[in-house]
């Protein structure tokens, strides 16, 4: 029997642009995702976040679902352009009030709020001034973080600076499949550094206001496999992708330096002169916890010169690669099973990742801030929503977290991605990750089997069997 003690935190996660809608209401300014999603061809079916789950108007109902699920915590993100429409200068009181009311409702329901300051919706005006390629953006972010600490400080349990800066830098500025849709490898590396700097400056700014603030960052770790583990060339491809994807962030944030092999591998692209004296000391801040987003593994091999890097990531097609400086790395499709994103399912890799992080950073607790899967749900005539593969996915990955804990990893919590079906970035509404189904015509919410299953877990704190998906009399939904 797999059991979790009372201190282990079970939650679920969302992000502002993916659920809120109301993009032009109450003084919200435009973000790069408004611009990008309205660009023809950028997203599947031209979907945008204009309405999304209409969470901006339905948040009270959604807090009701969070409470009914028995969640210990809820991970949300603040839309920077909603609280500070141009990314600089005066705050928008209506935007601040929205988050204050939401945080109060969560607290009243006994749910810890974990707040991410940046889940990809950069104010458009900051992009017009250069976006993450511009060092000034890092300082604007710190000002925004300070303002949020002042306005919302006592209501937030844990602050997370950035969600997955890998995606912001490489999908936004190298492959261009995310906003702002730029395809400039050197710019992507400048963005990496300015994001790292933004993180450090923001942690400092938050702690100027709230000296004891719990601060973290969420990274999407690439768990890498060599196509041929016995081939040293494939092992070197693993090392190279680990540098550009993982250690480009953990190096400066957690160890105070960029990896030397990363600088060497990218020497033809940039001289890294955007890293100024003193920056690394700023980036390297003590953190309360490290957020870990995990979905799948990545397999690579050494490719001959000129063999274009294939990106089998399940991102929408792009001619440009997110893998800056990795022209001689090829990506190999792994054995299934796969989710609807085309991502292979590998729960044992989550155990490995958590143990590896514990070994490298023994005093830094981890929290799984996202894990989940897109599948096509089956809606039966009586309106029940069946998602047995999502239940299995969650079951196996939560068991993988328990296994890591048994072997000594200091993992403090697990957040299912996502509370609701929502705007899945370039895939729009064509991919559903929610444990609660959203009908995009009526915006009605319906608990899937996985929500009933997760509610059983939060209530009993024992991992339920995968067929334990029947609604309980104590549940709404
Ligand atoms: C997260 O991104 C986001 O935080 C969240 O907003 C989103 O809805 C959710 O996951 C589901 O997509 O790097 O090419 O080897 C996850 C993005 C997905 C990026 C897996 C890396 C691995 C393939 N990550 N992907 S690859």
UniProtKB/TrEMBL annotation:
GO biological process per UniProt: cellulose catabolic process
EC id: 3.2.1.21
Superkingdom assignment: Bacteria
GO molecular function ontology, one term from the record: beta-glucosidase activity
Keyword Hydrolase assigned: yes
Binding site for substrate: 18, 119, 163, 295, 417, 424-425
Keyword Hydrolase: yes
InterPro entries: GH, GH_1_N_CS, Glyco_hydro_1, Glyco_hydro_1_AS, Glyco_hydro_1_beta-glucosidase
Keywords: Carbohydrate metabolism, Cellulose degradation, Glycosidase, Hydrolase, Polysaccharide degradation
Residues annotated as signal peptide: none
Family per record: Belongs to the glycosyl hydrolase 1 family.
PANTHER family: GLYCOSYL HYDROLASE, LP05116P
Name of the featured protein: Beta-glucosidase
Organism whose genome encodes this protein: Miniimonas arenae
